[in-house]
Write a structure and sequence with these properties.
Elements: E1 15-19, H1 24-28, E2 34-40, E3 43-51, E4 54-59, H2 65-73, E5 85-91, H3 95-103, E6 114-120, H4 126-133, E7 137-141, H5 146-156, E8 161-166, E9 169-171, H6 175-181, E10 188-197, H7 203-211, E11 221-223, H8 225-230, E12 246-250, H9 253-257, H10 273-283, E13 287-298, H11 304-329, H12 332-356, H13 365-385
Parallel strand pairs: 1-2, 5-6, 5-8, 6-7, 10-13
Antiparallel strand pairs: 2-3, 3-4, 8-12, 9-13, 10-12, 11-13
Helix pairs in contact: 3-4, 10-11, 11-12, 11-13
């Protein structure tokens, strides 16, 4: 197993981390049940998922000595001129998870200017007590909604960069350094990092990581205005930019394109406040960058009931976000996707399920479909009230 500082920050079972010195190390590694993550120094470079002795997902074909040399040569290091960063954690009624997340921040190689905990309408004082015990800035936001809480954090932040993570996340010591270093040109308005599972101890966690995981690969990727414009008649899939559990923004973009849309994400539509914001930045001419050198570890839902609810709200938020994107940009491809292409896609899946029987990929198809329809209804109800 890899010997790095994050080994002691509380990761669970089901994920093994292996250090790679040459490409041949990957082929020679004995794979374990769950996930094997391959690392080159402080950066993940690939993984293999195993379930009941079968490989269910493998992202290692790109690993050769040329790739490893590129990883070595592209490592960003901090400088004295590094931008300052504020870290914002939005949370509600999860003081134990919050405490664990906060415990991984003192190890950061680039210390944040400030850590802001936004308590989004918790029912008791435990969240406040955890934040104050950690000597961080505490804000109470009584209106429920993750994007509402994110906006409260953005308005409080004083750093050049505003970095967001979730309360159910543990952070690699170089997480913030690598997020911040990636803002190496003025057109980069947002940066996201790689989110790996902190554990794969239950069937629900393994299912999520296999079919819904947050990871976006092991190569850095820029999404710029040219890529945005190239999607003629189609919607650029902004959800591929990253995950809200690990994202950062230049503080100035909140003045340039506005704050998060408070109709979206947990507590409101259910999800996609992050991807709608990336989409808005791209429409405004900014570049969004994904960098796997910045690593966070996420604790997925442990139960099938919890995962079913999560997927329902994911699709509820996704549907609403497509219509918000159309409303804000006037790009009609969003409306066509929301009302025509996506429903047709779900109809095809339902017909295939009826003809061919159950598939593991369709385990939560009912939650997907009902969540999607609920998202369309949510958007129109909210718009009618405005």
């Amino acid at each position: 197993m890899i010997d790095t500082p994050f080994a002691g920050i509380g990761l669970g079972r089901g994920v093994v981390h292996v250090s790679v010195t040459s490409a041949s190390d990957v082929a020679e590694t004995t794979l374990n049940e769950g996930m094997t993550v391959f690392w080159r120094a402080d950066q993940p470079i690939g993984h293999v998922l195993m379930h009941e002795g079968q490989i269910t997902d493998a992202r290692i074909d790109h690993i050769d000595n040329t790739f490893l040399s590129a990883v070595d040569s592209n490592v960003r290091t901090s400088t004295k001129m590094m931008l300052s960063a504020s870290v914002v954690i939005c949370t509600r009624d999860r003081p134990d998870e919050l405490s664990k997340c906060l415990s991984s921040l003192p190890q950061q190689t680039h210390p944040p200017r400030e850590i802001i905990v936004v308590d989004n309408a918790s029912r008791d004082r435990r969240t406040r007590d955890v934040a104050l015990a950690a000597a961080v800035t505490y804000i109470r936001e009584d209106r429920p909604g993750l994007d509402i809480a994110r906006n409260a954090g953005a308005l409080q932040a004083t750093g050049d960069i505003v970095a967001y993570t979730d309360d159910d996340v543990l952070l690699h010591p170089r997480w913030l350094e690598q997020l911040t270093c990636a803002f190496d040109s003025p057109e980069v308005g947002a940066v996201t990092g790689l989110v790996l599972p902190a554990e794969l101890a239950t069937e629900a966690q393994r299912h999520f990581e296999t079919y819904w995981g947050f990871g976006k690969g092991y190569r850095e990727q820029d999404y710029d205005s040219a890529a945005f414009r190239s999607h003629h008649g189609q919607v650029l899939p902004a959800w591929d930019v990253g995950a809200g559990a690990s994202m950062a923004f230049r503080r100035e973009v909140f003045q340039a394109v506005g704050l998060f849309d408070e109709r979206l994400d947990v507590g409101q539509a259910g999800c996609s406040g992050d991807s709608e914001y990336w989409y808005r930045l791209l429409a405004g001419g900014y570049t969004c960058r994904y960098t796997p050198a910045s690593v966070a570890f996420h604790f997925h839902r442990r139960t099938m009931d919890g995962l079913a609810s999560q997927i329902y709200h994911y699709m509820r938020g996704h549907a609403a976000a497509l219509l918000v994107q159309y409303e804000r940009t006037g790009i009609s491809a969003n409306r066509r996707l929301a009302y025509y292409h996506k429903p047709r896609w779900y109809l095809a899946r339902l017909l295939r399920k009826a003809m061919e029987g159950d598939s593991i990929r369709d385990r939560f198809l009912k939650e997907e479909v009902t969540g999607y329809l609920a998202g369309l209804l949510f958007y129109h109800r909210q718009r009618f009230r405005r």
